[in-house]
Write a structure and sequence with these properties.
Helix content: 25-40%
CATH class of the largest domain: Alpha Beta
Number of strands: 17
Strand content: 15-25%
Distance between the termini: 19 Å
Largest sheet: 9 strands, parallel
Shape: globular
Bound molecules: guanine, zinc ion
Radius of gyration: 21 Å
Number of helices: 16
Number of domains: 2
CATH architecture of the largest domain: Alpha-Beta Barrel
Length: 436
């Protein structure tokens, strides 16, 4: 058991429906077997547990581990390809690199870079877009397992339009998905995600095979892309006989409460209604949407339609792993939308980057905030003296103001510690899989 002593901020209640920031200046969190066994004013928790070792983290701020609901593992080395819209960026940046994942040793190095990127940025839970190669998905699962990260991922499937090495058939996809799911789904903190790349590169036959795997693997997730770019949306409509993009997935039973669609920058009202009815979540990826010029995310329309929204980095179209940066960019985007935007406070941003993500991934009872009964997945922001974040925090006028400064100024180098399930996996520049 360990008793953590810290300034803690989290969002146990949805601020879009009246929830407030919970900020405790001198909080005691007792962690036993990876779970939060008690929480309260430090002196109270201390009095009830006088013999437990205390870890004093009062310099800085402890937040829940960050949740990234859309991030591509094979794209870590192509982050920063600027100046292109989606389909050109795929052709010139992403897909050539994804072809290289066919070589398992190369994929292993990429998986190492990828997991390091997540850990260094304080991301402890992620829905990860995998690779078209089963061997590369295996090394991704292995890497996540070694670090104990909460990762949901799977084989990416496509049977048209992409470079030939990235294509498969429904039969082969069924077999490889079944094998991967049998090996990894439910092992430790890992789960399987059925992952057609996007309807543009998927025939009805491959979507049907995805639907079959989704039904057969109990508790599996589904993820893909939707309504990201206007040219893409039009091409999907043409390929599917005028069907809406959302309906191309819905037709095969792929939209449920265990489904997450990335982007949705250009939805129709009917599509939003379908997503709400199915309880399917949307991963909003603002740095990617800006970098590719995809458009301004209509958060207000999602909110009013009752569609659950969480955040994704969309590495490598997105410009890095930091969910703090994504939160800030989400705020900017809503500002730029003027009257059509949804004004966001720092409390909304924390919610979107933690609890909302946990709920989208069906983990709302396990992680997302630091309440009793949840796993201790946490990050410790510890800016060095003189660092802009340290200066900002030293001059904050309220907890909400301090949290605004975290999103405005916080970077990966301000993260002084990362814990998953009570295990510390990073401290400053030091990082280590927990089993070592
Ligand atoms: N649509 C299909 N594949 C991708 C991808 O890799 N990145 C993004 N942003 N959109 C996609
Ligand atoms: Zn993506």
């Amino acid at each position: 058991m360990t008793l953590f002593r810290a300034r803690v901020m989290d969002t146990p209640a949805d601020p879009f429906t009246g929830g407030e920031l919970r900020s405790d200046d001198d909080c005691g969190i007792l962690v036993q077997g990876g779970l939060i066994a008690a929480r309260g004013p430090f002196e109270t928790v201390r009095a009830a547990n006088p013999d437990e070792p205390v870890l004093d983290l009062r310099d800085g701020i402890v937040l829940p581990g960050l949740v990234d609901t859309h991030v591509h593992f094979p794209q870590v080395r192509v982050i920063g390809g600027l100046g292109m819209p989606l389909l050109d960026w795929l052709d010139q940046c992403a897909l050539p690199e994804e072809v290289r994942m066919g070589e398992v040793d190369y994929a292993r190095g990429v998986a190492r870079d990828f997991v390091t990127g997540l850990v260094d940025s304080g991301t402890t839970t992620a829905l990860v877009f995998g690779s078209h190669f089963a061997s590369a998905v295996d090394v991704m699962f292995e890497a996540a397992d070694r670090w104990g990260l909460r990762v949901t991922t799977g084989l990416v499937t496509s049977d048209r339009i992409l470079p030939e090495p990235l294509l498969t058939t429904p039969e082969r996809a069924l077999k490889e998905q079944a094998e991967l799911a049998a090996r990894w789904h439910g092992k430790g903190r890992l789960r399987y995600a059925v992952t057609p790349r996007f309807s543009l590169s998927a025939s009805e036959a491959i979507l049907e095979s995805c639907g079959q795997t989704f039904t057969e693997v109990d508790g599996a997730f589904f993820t893909s892309h939707v309504n990201e770019n206007l040219r893409e949306v039009q091409e999907v409509r043409d390929l599917f006989g005028g069907s809406s993009y959302v309906d191309t997935y819905d037709k095969f039973g792929l939209l449920t409460e265990r489904s997450v669609l990335a982007h949705d920058v250009h939805p129709t009202d009917a599509e939003l209604a379908t997503l709400a009815t199915r309880h399917t979540s949307v991963a909003h990826c603002p740095t990617s949407n800006s970098a590719l010029g995809s458009g301004l995310f209509p958060l207000r329309r999602h909110h009013e339609a009752g569609v659950h929204v969480a955040m994704g980095s969309d590495v490598g179209a997105g410009t890095g792993f930091s969910m703090l940066k994504e939160g800030l960019q989400a705020y900017f985007m809503q500002r730029l939308l003027g009257d059509e935007g949804l004004p966001l406070t720092s409390t909304h941003l924390l919610w979107l980057c933690t609890s909302a993500g946990a709920q989208a991934l069906g983990l709302g009872d396990e992680v997302g905030d630091l309440s009793v009964g949840k796993a201790f997945d946490a990050i410790w922001l510890l800016p060095e003296a003189g660092d802009p974040l340290a200066v900002g925090l030293g001059n904050a006028k309220s907890p909400e103001d301090a949290l605004s400064k975290v999103f405005a100024l916080g970077t990966s180098s301000d993260i002084g510690g990362v814990w998953v399930g009570g295990d510390q996996i990073a401290a400053g520049r030091w990082r280590m899989p927990p089993s070592h």
